[in-house]
């Protein structure tokens, strides 16, 4: 599987250049599925920014699915599945309700599709999303989601929006789990391909 997990998307040129280098096709031939849970104008503005960012790179084939919908009915094969940020618990819950979670997992089995995560989208790719509520900047589990199992596309859990003052919190979380935890600052990304991984910054 190929995953590019970010804290804040294409936040610097190194991440953007690396992202382009890992696309399975030329930019103008790649198909993208953007997945987000948008409930208000502010959240929509983030999605619109992501769409523009991709369009400015020359990407033309962009499909958008709002997890607010009742059901995901798509069957098209996408080159990139692009999962946006937000409240991690709500996003994972809506992925299950709409059925897109199974579509994403099945899409990743061919080892050709690239999974691109931003913040919550990066956390969800891992084994468990419990890190999302950890520490002083964590999400709140307002919906009381009990099953925190992630997509399991990787055994690595991402701690996004990391800053140096949070180091103690991350270390405490590492002590309580049995899987690797990688912290990412907003200008960093983690690329995973099979058993290999690499930090881009």
Q: Count every beta strand, where a strand is a DSSP E run of 2 or more residues.
A: 9
Q: What is the general shape?
A: globular
Structural class: alpha/beta
Order of helices and strands: EHEHEEHHEHEHEEE
Number of helices: 6
Quote the average pLDDT: 95
* Sequence of strands across the biggest β-sheet: 3-2-4-5-1-8-9
Beta percentage is 15-25%
Helix content: 25-40%
Low-confidence runs: none
Distance between the termini: 21 Å
Radius of gyration: 16 Å
The profile of the biggest β sheet is: 7 strands, mixed
Written overview of the protein:
The protein is of the alpha/beta class. It is built from six helices and nine strands, in the order βαβαββααβαβαβββ. The chain has a seven-stranded mixed β-sheet with strand order 3-2-4-5-1-8-9. A two-stranded parallel sheet has the order 6-7. It starts with a strand and ends with a strand.
């Amino acid at each position: 599987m190929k995953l590019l997990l970010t804290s804040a998307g294409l936040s610097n040129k190194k991440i953007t250049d690396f992202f382009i280098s890992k696309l399975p096709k030329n930019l103008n031939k790649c198909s993208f599925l953007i997945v987000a849970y948008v409930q208000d104008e502010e959240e929509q503005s983030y999605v619109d920014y992501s769409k523009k960012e991709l369009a400015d790179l020359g990407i033309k084939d962009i499909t958008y699915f709002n997890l607010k919908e009742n059901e995901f009915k798509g069957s098209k094969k996408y080159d990139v599945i692009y999962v946006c940020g937000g409240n991690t618990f709500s996003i994972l819950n809506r992925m299950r309700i709409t059925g897109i979670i199974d579509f994403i997992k099945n899409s990743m089995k061919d080892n050709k599709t690239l999974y691109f995560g931003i913040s919550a989208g990066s956390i969800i790719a891992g084994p468990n999303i419990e890190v999302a509520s950890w520490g002083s900047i964590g999400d709140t589990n307002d919906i009381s989601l009990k099953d925190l199992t992630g997509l399991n596309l990787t055994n690595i859990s991402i701690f996004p929006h990391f800053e140096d003052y949070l180091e103690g919190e991350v270390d405490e979380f590492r002590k309580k789990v049995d899987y690797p935890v990688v912290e990412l600052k907003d200008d960093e990304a983690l690329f995973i391909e099979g058993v290999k991984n690499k930090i881009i910054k």
